[in-house]
Design a protein that fits this description.
Elements (H helix, E strand, L loop, with lengths): L1 E2 L10 E7 L10 E2 L4 E6 L4 E3 L4 E7 L7 E6 L5 E2 L6 E4 L8 E6 L9 E6 L3 E4 L5 E2 L4 E7 L8 E5 L2 E6 L3 E4 L8 E7 L3 E2 L3 E3 L1 E2 L4 E6 L6 E9 L3
Parallel strand pairs: 1-3, 5-11, 13-21
Antiparallel strand pairs: 2-22, 4-6, 6-9, 7-8, 7-10, 10-11, 12-14, 14-17, 15-16, 15-18, 18-19, 18-20, 22-23
Length: about 230
């Protein structure tokens, strides 16, 4: 079995561009990635209100690997997050802290990647931080910054209205690949949330194209193939 390890120089600023790679194109090779650290976020969501506190932590299986919590943001590229290597506490987060966060070892191995969006708007869309498995149920919540935080909301996928919900939340049952896309919500009188990409994973190898922050064109030399579990 061929084992592929992601190294630090391959990490660049991420956009939500996912290319499916059929197994038939792998010519009999199997690619696996061993992640010995996992990045967790508290509160557990992609979108954060500006001014809120956020804690990011590298949960590591091997502390001797010397894991560092690293980030690429709109104001800083490839910097350590926090004073403690595997822990980052942000007491008051700003829009400029939006970006890609991950754990990286001295040898260049990386953890899962979390893309945080810090919003100065009056509302956010709460969605799962981790990838969603096919067949799971997924709940999206449209939340305002000030009370009442839960109001009737309209939910959109790829710019098209899905449905309106009087309770401010929507559940997608038994998700499939067709549910993958860019989601946002809207509450009358409060505006709309930022958009979040929801990825639905199965047994297919996925190619994630790392791109320059806030740019739509990918540099194909920066592509990395990895397995999503």
């Amino acid at each position: 079995m061929f084992r592929l390890q992601l190294v630090g120089w391959q990490m660049f600023l991420a956009m939500h561009v996912f290319l499916l790679l059929p197994l038939t194109q792998l010519s009999g090779f199997f690619f696996t990635v061993t992640l010995t650290a996992r990045l967790t976020v508290s509160p557990s969501r992609f979108q954060i209100f500006e001014g809120d506190s956020v804690t990011l932590r590298c949960e590591e299986d091997d502390s001797s690997a010397g894991w560092t919590l690293t980030r690429n943001t709109s104001k800083q590229q490839r910097t350590q997050c926090g004073d403690v290597q595997a822990l980052c506490n942000i007491s008051s987060i700003f829009e400029a802290d939006s970006g890609v966060y991950w754990c990286e070892s001295r040898e260049g191995a990386i953890s899962n990647i979390v893309n945080l969006t810090v919003s100065g708007k009056l509302m956010i869309l709460q969605s799962p931080v981790l990838h969603v498995m096919e067949g799971d149920d997924v709940t999206l919540l449209c939340q305002t910054k000030t009370p009442p935080s839960i109001l009737p909301a309209a939910f959109y996928k790829d710019g098209s209205l899905i449905r309106k919900q009087p309770t401010g939340h929507m559940t997608i049952q038994h998700v499939s690949r067709s549910d993958e896309g860019l989601y946002k919500c809207d509450i009358s009188g409060h505006g709309e949330s930022p958009s979040s990409w929801i990825t639905v994973t199965g047994d297919t190898l996925t190619c994630l194209c790392f791109c320059r922050f806030q740019h739509s064109q990918c540099d194909h030399n920066l592509m990395t193939v990895f397995a999503l579990f």
